[in-house]
Amino acid sequence: MPNLIAIKGSKDGLRLQLDEAADWDDLVAALRGQFSQGANFFHGAQIIVDIGERALTDEQLSTLLALMKQHGIHPESLASTTRESRNAARSAGLAARTLTRAPEPEERGDAGFITRTIRSGQLIRHHGHVTVLGDINAGGEVIAGGNVIIWGRVRGIIHAGALGDRTAIIGALELAPTQLRIADLIARAPEGGSNKYPEIAFIENDQINVEAWETYRK
């Protein structure tokens, strides 16, 4: 099955872009699989649903909204070129955006760069790679579809490869997290405190391993 779903970022936040020509049943199946695979990434997220030129029926929209609700996803709005779909969205109590086919200059690249400490209660969620110039305090959380690099100390929760990418890595100057996650695997910091040197976490043999940067790069 071809890739029917794309997760993108824009100035308005996360955008879920759906293949406008795919069979509806195939698209729903792909969404169900993606939401399950990236459960931690999607749960609690506010997302713009971009359906392009697809004309959704009330029944199809109801199925889509129910699936998103089941996975704790909050649709911020529905973007479509068709008036029929926008009217269906408004009837369902969902904001609607007029979508044009002009290039979207606001669309961001895959990398997110944060120049501050992530404090307790704060959550950073990004579809691509994330670099943080600062610490991740206990109670702070970063969820990324790609790699996560922290130029500082990690005391909170980091989830890299949250959309299912097992090749993702987590790197930090000091790793003493509450929890590390890569794709579907979870690890906790070993007892005894952190090492005072840069480390990289990665998946090998179906488990998360942590190595000193000097060892990992060889």
Secondary-structure blueprint:
Elements (H helix, E strand, L loop, with lengths): L4 E6 L2 E6 L5 H14 L1 H4 L3 E7 L5 H13 L3 E7 L2 H9 L4 E3 L12 E4 L8 E4 L2 E4 L8 E4 L3 E7 L2 E4 L9 E6 L3 E4 L2 E3 L11 E6 L2 E6 H4 L2
Parallel strand pairs: 2-3, 3-4, 4-5, 6-8, 7-9, 8-10, 9-11, 10-12, 11-13
Antiparallel strand pairs: 1-2, 12-15, 13-14, 15-16
Helix pairs in contact: 1-3
Assigned CATH class of the largest domain: Mainly Beta
Q: Report Rg.
A: 19 Å
Number of helices: 5
Please bin the fraction of helical residues.
Answer: 10-25%
The H-and-E topology, N to C, reads as: EEHHEHEHEEEEEEEEEEEEH
Supply the CATH architecture of the largest domain. 3 Solenoid
Average pLDDT value?
Answer: 89
Please summarize the sheet with the most strands: 6 strands, mixed
How many domains, as an integer?
2
Walk across the major sheet and give the strand order.
6-8-10-12-15-16
Describe the protein.
The chain is of the alpha/beta class. It folds into two domains: 5-98, Alpha-Beta Plaits (2-Layer Sandwich), CATH 3.30.70.260; 111-216, 3 Solenoid (Pectate Lyase C-like), CATH 2.160.20. It has helices at 24-37, 39-42, 58-70, 83-91, 213-216; strands at residues 5-10, 13-18, 46-52, 74-80, 96-98, 111-114, 123-126, 129-132, 141-144, 148-154, 157-160, 170-175, 179-182, 185-187, 199-204, 207-212. The strands form three sheets. The protein has a six-stranded mixed β-sheet. A five-stranded mixed β-sheet has the order 1-2-3-4-5. Strands 7-9-11-13-14 form a five-stranded mixed β-sheet, with no helix packed on it. A hairpin with a 2-residue loop joins β1 and β2. The chain is elongated, with a radius of gyration of 19 Å. Mean pLDDT is 89; it is low at 103-108.
